Amino acid sequence: MRRVLAVTMAAGAAWAARRAVGRRVATSPLWPLPALETPVSGHSPRRRLHAVITSRTEPAEGVLLLTVESPELPPWAPGAHVDVVLPSGLVRQYSLCGDPAAAGAYRLAIRLVEDGRGGSREAHAQLMAGAGLELRPPRNRFVLEPAPSYVFVAGGIGITAILPMLRAATVAGADWTLLYGGRSRASMPFLDELAVHGERVAVLPEDEVGLPDLAPVATAGPGTLVYCCGPQPLMRAVTAAAADPAAVRLERFTPSAPGPARPFTVELRRSGRTVEVGADETALSAVRRVLADVPYSCEQGFCGTCQHRFLEGEVDHRDELLTDQERADSMLLCVSRAKDEHLALDL
Fold first, then answer.
1. Is 323 a residue whose pLDDT tops 60?
2. Residue 10: what are its φ and ψ, rounded to 5°?
3. Which of 258, 227, 257 lies closest to 242 in space, CA to CA?
């Protein structure tokens, strides 16, 4: 009897010990290393939204227009974009081009880029009416600021970010002009919607008129804000032509040209490792040499999949996503770098 009791007590003690260790490991997966605050996981910390594609059309050659609906969709303002999680898990960013007053419905336009990284091809091939779609809440780094007048410049699919601004500027009673360029009329979506604005809109297909005349940008008066979304050469031209470069607001859907880079060291505080980041590689690629499961997607500083918290050092932020508040303690490994020789990450 005493033997049975001893065995039972030993088994109970072992079970209690396993529970205690389990709780400790849950608090700090690398226990017995010291526990830190919960890190940014590497997956976007923003909540996920579940919607249904209710409409799929093609308003121009190579352009897919989707309407997605869900009671989960939060309000948004002109200039906002959302992350779309494609069926493969790729994350891509698209501007909202519908009406902010249409509660529970978002409209997205996606241009097919045959020689791109695969996101647009997957969207065109697989996003069908009736299918579910996962999104992340809107972000806006292209806010329409109040002004008495505007010059809007859109290149190609860049019209998606500008379109809701035209409605807002009209409602506000502002004076505005739009220069809308593209390869050809057939490739330029929303021409029918823009026609209602009459002479305020200049449609400038390259195969008809060549490169757009940016005279309205150069002659914009004091107080006029210039909003531009399009390819990098167009945005550089607009900035160079502007009478007041400080009045120019840009929305990029391709990464800006990187600045000079130099090597630095990344300390992975949780795992007790240190990696060297070469001048010709990203922090993401260096970290993945020792932590191969660190997730990533766009590799261009837009989606936030590789967002991680830094614990020490100063970051040279080169992304187009994080807010100033987020940049205070986190970075995107795919594009951002150390300002000096060392960074410590919560990894």
1. yes
2. -65, -40
3. 227
Q: Give the model confidence (pLDDT) of 147-180 as tens digits.
A: 999 999 999 999 999 999 999 999 999 999 999 9
pLDDT for res 326: 87
As a residue count, the chain comes to 347
Whose structure tokens read 């300002």?
339
pLDDT of residue 20: 46
Q: Are 343 and 266 in contact (CB under 8 A)?
A: yes
Q: What b-and-e string marks burial along 322-338, b requiring 16 or more CB atoms within 10 Å of the CB? A: beeebbeebbbbbbbbb
Long-range contacts of 208-212 (CB under 8 A, 24+ apart): 208/184, 211/181, 211/237, 212/153, 212/179, 212/181
Q: Given strand 149-155, what is the order of strands in its sheet?
A: 201-205, 175-182, 149-155, 224-229, 248-251
What are the beta bridge partners of residue 229?
154, 251
Instruction: Give the model confidence (pLDDT) of 26-73 as tens digits.
Output: 333 333 333 334 444 444 456 889 999 999 999 999 999 999 999 999
Place of tokens 């987020």: 326
How far apart, in Å, do the first and last CA atoms of the chain sit?
Answer: 51
Shortest CA distance to 188 belongs to which of 232, 157, 165? 157
Say if residue 112's pLDDT is above 50.
Answer: yes
Rounded CA-CA distance 327/343 in Å is 14
Strand residues in 190-247 grouped as ranges (E): 201-205, 224-229
